[in-house]
Specification:
Length: 551
């Protein structure tokens, strides 16, 4: 490996807050969140202790996949505002010592991007080779790959006999061809444009799939068929290293990769070769789904959640720790309790999130214990992945009425569940806007007090607890730098230590509704740094009790 200049690792140990712009704050009351709305909440984020904001895509887009289908990388989607608004966001954030990380979606563009439009119009266009256009010959499709959202990964090109284009996601998201030098340059120009504006880094969408080594048929699998030809390919390593050599090594920046299907060795390869600085691990996020098709749910077990997390903690150089994002269900709904132990379980999960080693990611609303919004109807469904899945399900189970299929699907999977508008206060639409119909319904439980306003005034709130954890982490070298040692893991509780030199912090977490036998009497109560439950029982960890103490 060449000797390279080491970039600053300032991104490490930061508190990173993910904003899903559509749902954060709608300043102009048109039903969609926007950049001015984000600016109006910067003081709130500062007060929470946020140091970096990761913005889900705000570029120009037909919004088929809510911005993960970009039609112009150099413009801001008018529903979010203008480039001036975005510049203002960077400046206002900077004044508060907050840095902005953008979502970089380069595996595919929107089918509305002029690259693709031109390629469709003119077979001799240079943009034709920016994508994968292939003739199926005598076959039904050029190969047997499927889209991540179910169904074939190929779409027929209109008015061209037997011609198809590749899309690993929806047909509105054609895949870019990273064998083409020009494509690499286009992406570098986009990154440079935003880095020069003062953007701090990028969250790289499905980044370990960008390079397709060959277009041969894949082995039979239900999900990611063809994956052996495009997941973690040597070509992807080369492209990412090019980005570093050509551009990123010259900036104080960082890249966090969205990387499913990754072993810990592969993760370290990306990090050690300066291709990515850190990445999201996926196995824990699928811990309550069946292996061959995670949409189908199985009972949540703490061991299934923590085993992959602990593995990555111990094996990967720098991990990005998260329990929620815009693609996953809300963690308190999945791993905690939304009824009797709502507060306790949200806090216990927060202890896990903050006490693990790595950069900490909080998804908007997680800090007030927002829950899944599941009351939506088939007509209200927005998520393109659920629409695709419903179409596929209808083909397979044609004898079941569509509405019933939706109900079943919606009870297991629908990315809309975690995308409902942010709950600010108890006014109309939870203060998301001034009353215009929001693009997705607001969760009614804002009327029961799950709002920022309510949480701000309650000394025992989840929000206050998050603030305590932020300050605990930012002020503790052990939490920031210490090694992690797992002492115990069962489906009832876990115990781990964080150690630095001769100092040690111990973490105990019960993620169940039942009390669990544990000799709490042996813990010196003076040494307790934080606990998700105010009371102690000498012999038991109480339901959803998480205790952090110095040893
Ligand atoms: C991952 C993103 O998080 C998700 O929202 C999107 O649908 C796919 N990548 C495709 O871009």
């Amino acid at each position: 490996m060449d000797q390279v200049k080491k970039r600053s690792d300032d991104f490490k140990n930061k508190i990173i807050y993910q904003i899903y712009p559509l749902s954060f704050c709608d300043s102009n009351n048109d039903g969609y969140g926007d950049i001015q709305g984000i600016i109006s909440k910067l003081d709130y984020l500062k007060d929470l202790g946020v140091q970096i904001i990761w913005l889900s895509p705000i570029y120009k887009s037909p919004m088929f996949d809510n911005g993960y289908d970009i039609s112009d990388y150099y413009s801001i989607n008018p529903i979010f505002g203008t480039m001036e608004d975005f510049d203002c966001l960077i400046n206002e954030a900077k004044k508060r010592d907050i840095r902005i990380v953008m979502d970089l979606v380069i595996n595919h563009t929107s089918d509305q991007h002029y690259f693709f439009q031109d390629a469709l119009k003119d077979k001799n266009s240079k943009y034709r080779d920016y994508y994968y256009f292939r003739n199926a010959g005598k076959r039904k499709y050029p190969n047997n790959w499927n889209s991540a959202f179910t169904g074939p990964a190929w779409e027929k090109v209109p008015n061209e006999d037997g011609m198809f284009y590749l899309h690993l996601y929806t047909k509105q998201q054609p895949d870019l061809n990273f064998h083409n030098e020009e494509v690499i340059k286009e992406v570098e120009n986009v990154m440079k444009f935003y880095l020069d504006k003062g953007v701090y880094g990028f969250r790289c969408d499905v980044i370990n799939q960008i390079y397709k080594t060959s277009l041969k048929n894949g082995k039979f699998r239900i999900l990611n068929r063809g994956g052996e030809h495009y997941i973690n390919q040597e070509g992807t390593h080369k492209v990412l290293r090019r980005f570093y050599d050509d551009l990123l090594s010259k900036y104080d920046t960082f890249l966090v990769g969205e990387t499913s299907n990754l072993t810990t060795d592969e993760a370290n390869k990306y990090i050690r070769n300066h291709e990515l600085d850190t990445m999201f691990e996926f196995e824990h996020a699928m811990c309550d789904g069946v292996k061959w098709f995670p949409i189908i749910k199985k009972k949540f077990k703490m061991k299934n959640l923590l085993k992959p997390i602990y593995l990555w903690q111990n094996k990967v150089d720098w991990v990005s720790v998260y329990l929620e994002n815009h693609d996953q269900r809300r963690s308190v709904t999945r791993f905690g309790d939304t009824k009797k132990y709502h507060k306790e379980s949200a806090k216990a999960l927060a202890v896990l999130l903050f006490l693990l080693k790595g950069s900490t990611y909080v998804y908007q609303g997680q800090e007030i214990g927002m829950t899944d919004y599941t009351d939506n109807t088939m007509e209200e469904m927005d998520d393109c992945a659920t629409k695709y899945a419903l179409q596929t399900a209808k083909k397979l189970f044609f004898f079941i009425p569509k509405r019933k299929l939706f109900k079943i699907l919606n009870s297991m999977y629908n990315r809309d569940h975690a995308r409902s508008p942010m709950q600010w206060d108890c006014s109309v639409n939870a203060g998301f806007n001034q009353g215009a119909k929001p693009w997705l319904k607001v969760n009614k439980n804002y009327m029961n007090g799950i709002t920022v306003e309510q949480e701000k005034d309650d000394p025992n709130s989840i929000l206050k607890f998050y603030k305590k954890l932020v300050s605990l982490k930012t002020n503790s070298e052990i939490i920031k730098k210490g090694d992690i040692k797992v002492i115990f893991l069962s489906n009832k509780y876990t115990e781990f230590e964080r150690c630095l030199d001769d100092k040690k912090i111990c973490v105990l977490i019960n993620l169940t509704k039942k009390k669990v036998k544990y000799p709490i009497a042996n813990i010196n109560k003076e040494k307790i740094l934080i606990s998700s439950v105010e009371t102690y029982d000498d012999k038991y960890l109480l339901p959803y009790q998480a205790i952090v103490y110095e040893v």
